[in-house]
């Protein structure tokens, strides 16, 4: 088909579906841990990075199984089945109604959901990692030796399918997660967000199997990684066995393997180990890079996602693949040629150093954004403290004195104060002065809580109500909280769209209800003896809390007053774009150049060893994050960002020093020398054999 083997189109479709499945699931994973399993940020981050580390460790296992035992085709099929089962188990584990027997909206057996989720993730890590090194290589196997041009085009299509799958899934699955679904109670729709990737993985498996009879299947020929490992192991063991001074030293410690392995394998292994030594500082880059899906996504949950259309926190990850598509050609065809024109020797290792520096600066930018976010957080009372806020619903000013003689506060009509903090044990009562009236309100307060005192005076007495707010943190997941207070002298039944707040007696306050759709206006309806009045609400924004006073009614239009209990998120998600830009520039210079450098310095039959080493650096980078997240005593998130930036900057300097001593080699030239030597040895052996045959004939 167009000069291509028909089988490769099945492989490209398979890769698109698999990448959609993986990136779609991964995009919403950190928020699933935080909001469904209710894990705190550090623990959720640690488990997220454990999973990612596992995904980059299992490719080594997959490559060994494919090359030494099953072959690429069977490895892809069997591990894809494992992968599909894992996605399905994860989706089932996220179904709230599975254990919500009392139908209160929360699972009754969280341990079962955690167990299913962890089993699912382990199977996914085994599947996605195991097939990672096999699929692209299997696609390459479909071409003949004279189809080099078609093979090159295939790899371009293959990587295009990877980017297309990840890009689409990062748009789609966060939107699926943001919808509400459920049998008995409506929740964020994680079953759908995980279920669609599971379906796509099943489609990927079916498509791959359909093309079975068309594939060219190369038999397993042994795994070069095992040979290299055995060579290195034998050299170390042999060197240790001959550690006495009576044995002469050898030029390189790997030369101790020469008793068992040929010189060409030893020379190739030396080249590989030389590059792998440079890999030692690289995990620190990945430690920062992979936090896009964890810390940066959590950061976005405390920001304003109104771009004209609503952008979910987990959708901000899409900035990276979009920028990659833009930046790779810009850097390759504009930036690098300009640097070359300036006669600067911008070697691959120098590019990687700059990439690490840019990633470090990305985390400085993330820290600056976090500082601004922290400024918007409300201050809640500490363990031995209580906060009180005053709302005057009357038509005259009021004065409230906190006894014994702690503070005196004036409140204007239809105004509210901010929250005032007191030591709970010292605050005994409130004296309310309204015009010529006076009232004492005795207090029995809970420590660490917020209260709202609503007051209103008339000609003869003062009405007041001290309500427990029962909110100890800013609303999460971008939701807003709303409650109502009745400013009528008779009971009022309050609803807002399909949310019922109940019948409120005068000055009584309803419980808070969560508003999931931040950009919507709702119909507020108040039913009272004189009739029913309605009004369209304001848009509540992200992460806010409001108390709405039902004041009066004019021509069936309800008059209300909004009191802001917790300010909405004011830092816009667009402020994350600079940090994504810096990190993506770093990725282009570090990751793309790093792979290119590795392959240019590796012998032709050792590419897979360096690929395994590269993936291992990603694995170790994620382990670094889970260690820091688990052991960090830093209370401020911006401080952790600065810590990671500083660590990468130090590693960047070390890498620059080590790289300056590296000597570039041409593996093809070295391999050619060995080939020439082998030819000479072969010719010599033939000459010797001819001489022996001639001598025998003369005898």
Automatic annotation (TrEMBL):
Q: Does the keyword DNA repair apply?
A: no
Q: Name the residue ranges with Acidic residues bias.
A: 687-699
Basic and acidic residues compositional bias, start-end: 676-686
Q: Which reaction does it catalyse?
A: glycyl-L-glutamine(out) + H(+)(out) = glycyl-L-glutamine(in) + H(+)(in); L-leucyl-L-proline(out) + H(+)(out) = L-leucyl-L-proline(in) + H(+)(in); N-acetyl-D-muramoyl-L-alanyl-D-isoglutamine(out) + 2 H(+)(out) = N-acetyl-D-muramoyl-L-alanyl-D-isoglutamine(in) + 2 H(+)(in); N(alpha)-formyl-L-methionyl-L-leucyl-L-phenylalanine(out) + 2 H(+)(out) = N(alpha)-formyl-L-methionyl-L-leucyl-L-phenylalanine(in) + 2 H(+)(in)
Keywords in alphabetical order: Cell membrane, Glycoprotein, Membrane, Peptide transport, Protein transport, Symport, Transmembrane, Transmembrane helix, Transport
Recorded hits in InterPro entries, A to Z, give: MFS_trans_sf, Oligopep_transport, POT_fam, PTR2_symporter_CS
- The entry's protein name is Solute carrier family 15 member 1
**Annotated organism of origin:** Rhagologus leucostigma
